[in-house]
Predict the 3D structure of the following.
Amino acid sequence: MSARQWWMDLRGTAGFPAAGGGEDIVPAGLLSSDTTRLVTAERARQLTRALPHGDSTFSSGGMSGVHTVREEGGAVESGFVRPDGMVITVRAAYRDGRTVRYEMLATEGLQEPVRRSVHAADARLHVGGSRDTVVPLPELPWAVADYGMHEHLAPALARLARNGHGPALIAVYRPFPMRWDTVEVTVQPLRGPVLLASVRQGDVLEVVLLEKDGTLLYVERVEPSAFYRRPRTGTEQAKRLDALVAEVLRAAGQP
């Protein structure tokens, strides 16, 4: 199996002192490289691995991709693939909404695979895999979830609702870039087992529908640009979601 990578360094203008004083301005060139090489059988299996078998959702707008999620007991196995071929798969275990363990593999073209294994012990977060580090746990409630993988933030949102909290701050560790984010969260009951959560990080505001057990139903980015993640059209999950949204709009007096 061959892998190809095209790299470009777009440039503008450059200047240097002129012989008679002042500065000469010259256009800078375009540096480009196109690399094709064979990959090992192991890398080929990683790059073409299947997403975990489970319910499918699709994201569109600011980020496009196909997601699958499977929940079994206290474990959530999920993954997504982007149009450029990047694949991220995660297996995580939860206890009462808290992350017990989070294991992630990300692959993308000719880049080296990124592995992360995260667990908490002794008031610290231990991160292993491609890079090893230990970071102190924050005093805030915390969760572990990569960007775009809201199914791993949902257990923490459900736990927040069970504890009866209003607006709150949650520290979210992002394993891929290995960084903490602080998000402002409000969770409220919507209908039956459904919860409505608003999640804000800086100028990004998202609305999340989930069930009280932490099952993710729907994600919509409200600000600054539109982004949607919903079940595949025609599925039972999509029909249930559409009926729920229609009921919410009717209750709010919107057509």
